[in-house]
Amino acid sequence: MPQGRRADIVRVLIVEDDPSLGEALSEGLRLQGFGPVWVRTGLDGLAAAPDADVVLLDLGLPDLDGLEVCRRIRAVSDVSVIMLSARGDELDRVLGLEAGADDYLVKPFSSRELVARLHGLERRRDRAELAGQSQPPAALTSSASVTGNPSTEVRLGTLTLDGRTRTVAIAGRPVELTHKEFDLLAALLADPGAVCRREDLMSEVWDSHWFGSTKTLNVHVASLRAKLGDPGWIETVRGVGFRAAAAP
Ligand code: CA
């Protein structure tokens, strides 16, 4: 398998009070070669999180709200967190991501889907490590120097954005975006791989007198990720903003 994988996920902490789901997750992950540890309360989850590579965190727990658990984990640790919830609406997704979750799975989900997300996290951690070594992302090419309002074509991996026709495609397949979603993606791709601060994105895409909630930005990032088909295209840089990255 891949050479030099540094970000293998092995220790998976499951924080889930539903016994049948907790058991099924433990069993499924063990069969896939992971080392699951299952606890049933938020407090037990907080105690065990520092030893985990990734935390699968149920939103509805008996003692603490899952979002609160996520925030407390985030305050002390960079461990990856995947929120598990029966509530799938967009507000919940945004709240989960605002609380510092890396990803989100809506119940019911298959173990195949879960394992795919875990591997997705591994890839993103690999890329983050590469970025930390200040090497340029491997799949990054830009056909022109562009400003925040590109008039030319920008490529990032299989993603193409054409500023003249305001069209976006992935591997040649068109992606339908709203006006704001396109502007947001264009702003992120103005300097692919660079971190864009929230404030800058909001003033660039909305207007310079924007004093509203950052929820608007989060909602647009969430819908953009959904339309691009992989959350990995837009990485959250905790406490700062976002960065465009070549998704697999
Ligand atoms: Ca629950």
Give short descriptive properties of this protein.
248 residues; alpha/beta; Rossmann fold; Arc Repressor Mutant, subunit A; 5-stranded parallel sheet; 5-stranded antiparallel sheet; 13 strands; 38% helix; 21% strand; elongated; disordered N terminus; binds calcium ion
What is the percent of helical residues? Answer: 25-40%
Any idea what the shape is? Answer: elongated
> For the CA atoms, what is the radius of gyration?
19 Å
Counting DSSP H or I runs of 4 or more residues, the number of helices is: 8
What does the main sheet amount to? Answer: 5 strands, parallel
- Look up the CATH topology of the largest domain: Rossmann fold
Return the domain count. Answer: 2
Structural class: alpha/beta
Helix and strand topology:
Elements: E1 11-15, H1 19-31, E2 35-39, H2 42-48, E3 54-58, H3 66-76, E4 80-85, H4 90-98, E5 103-106, H5 111-132, E6 140-141, E7 153-156, E8 159-162, E9 167-170, E10 173-175, H6 179-189, E11 196-197, H7 198-205, H8 215-228, E12 234-237, E13 241-244
Helix pairs in contact: 2-3, 4-8, 6-8
Bound molecules: calcium ion.
Short description:
The chain is α/β, with parallel strands linked by helices. It has 8 helices and 13 strands.
